[in-house]
Amino acid sequence: MSFKELRVPALEVRQSPGKTLYSFAVDGKLIHDFAAVSRIRREDDNHIVGYQRPEVLLHIAEIRNYIESESPMIPNAVVVAFDPRVRFEPLESNDDTSPVSYSNPGTLVIPVDETWGPDEKPGFIVDGQQRIAAIRDSNLAAFPVCVTAFITSNLKEQTEQFILVNSTKPLPKGLIYELLPNTEAALSTQLQRRRFPAMLLNLLNTRRESPFFGLIQTPTNPRDMTDRNHAKGVIKDNSILKMLENSLSDGVLHDLRYLGDGPDIEGMISVVSNFWGAVREVFPEAWAKDPGKSRLMHGAGMVSMGFVMDAICARYRKLRAPDKQQFIDDLLPLQSICFWTGGKWVFGSGKEFEWNEIQNVPRHIEILTNHLLYQYKTLVWSRDRRQTTFIDPTQSSMF
Question: According to the model, what pLDDT value does residue 226 have?
Answer without folding.
Answer: 80
